[in-house]
Design brief:
Helix 2 packs parallel to helix 3. The protein has a domain of 87 residues: 2-Layer Sandwich (Nucleotidyltransferase, domain 5). The protein is an alpha/beta fold. A hairpin with a 2-residue loop joins strand 2 and strand 3. The longest helix is centred in the N-terminal third of the chain and has 20 residues. The protein contains 3 helices and 7 strands, in the order αββββαβαββ. Strands 4-3-2-5-6 form a 5-stranded mixed beta sheet, with helices on one face. A two-stranded parallel ribbon has the order 1-7.
Length: 134
């Protein structure tokens, strides 16, 4: 007569709960990454059909408020064009061909853009002018 033991351990694993959890995490990450905007300033960029995907180490933004210009390096507001130059010199860490992305509103005068371009060139930066896709 065979006696069955009642304490047999079931070695199977149900992965349905793990699949649901991974799906929820994937949805959360997709939503969270689309809401993150690296350029928090709301600038109306000029439109262009040529888009360059280069990795800039820093961004400079120019915003026009009335007749005055406000300059930002990354998201930090700096005092005038001299502040931009100081901030760019501070971020230059001996990198080979560092790149700066220039974000400026459509209404910004060209001479202000050229000032930032000259600062970037004098400090050894490559410059990308940010635009919106057509």
């Amino acid at each position: 007569m065979a006696i069955k033991r009642g304490s047999k351990v079931d070695k199977s694993f149900s992965s349905s709960a793990m699949t649901d959890l991974m799906f929820l995490l994937l949805i959360f990450m997709l939503i969270a990454t689309t809401l993150i905007n690296p350029n928090a300033l709301k600038l109306e960029l000029p439109k262009s059909s040529n888009q360059l995907k280069d990795k800039a180490i820093t961004t400079v933004s120019i915003e026009q408020k009335g007749s005055e210009y406000t300059y930002y390096v990354e998201l930090d507001k700096v005092q005038g064009i001299e502040g931009v130059e100081r901030a760019l010199k501070a971020r230059l860490d001996g990198q080979q061909e560092p790149t700066v992305s220039l974000h400026c509103d459509k209404k910004v005068a060209v001479d202000e853009v050229v000032k930032v371009m000259n600062i970037a060139k004098d400090n050894g930066y490559r410059l990308i002018l940010a635009t919106q896709a057509k």
